[in-house]
Amino acid sequence: MLEAKDCCLVIIDIQGKLSELMVDKDTLFKNTEVLIQTAKALDIPILWCQQVPKALGETVDSLRLLLRDDEPIDKHTFSCCDDEKFDNKLSAIKPKQAILCGIESHICVYQTAIDLLEKGIEVNVIADAVSSRTKANKKVALKRITAEGAKLSSTELCLFELLKNAKHPKFKELAKLIK
What we know:
This protein is of the alpha/beta class. The chain is built from 9 helices and 6 strands, in the order βααβααβαβαβαβαα. It has a 6-stranded parallel β-sheet. The radius of gyration is 15 Å and the shape is globular.
């Protein structure tokens, strides 16, 4: 089970024109917004990555607005873990669990998930908050990720798993996000 005190949220490369090419992009954007709002409400650290923003563009506006108090990690590596700034932030946080969302499932999300697992971190990939340019690539990536030991989840499952019960002080606020 996910525990807010043990987690970090990793947002991977939802940016520029590439994000517009993703399968079911509107669901990807909406669910990532929910994950960001949940993380902020529950004080879960956020690691926000952008792949070569000078070439691919900035993070999409709706997400960047929610992340305005956070600093992006601009990277050139496919795995976030291969970026020194990301690795330093991850080491400072020392999470036991990571919640992953972003693009593309079969490249940066996949490689980051595998590297986090190798670091001994439990990986939870939010299947309705990751995407690729094709359904086939997303499907293969999710199969490979789970075969390597990561867990698949959904935005709603993740939210309620973190809350644990309806008496949580943030329950009403966060439950509204999925209606």
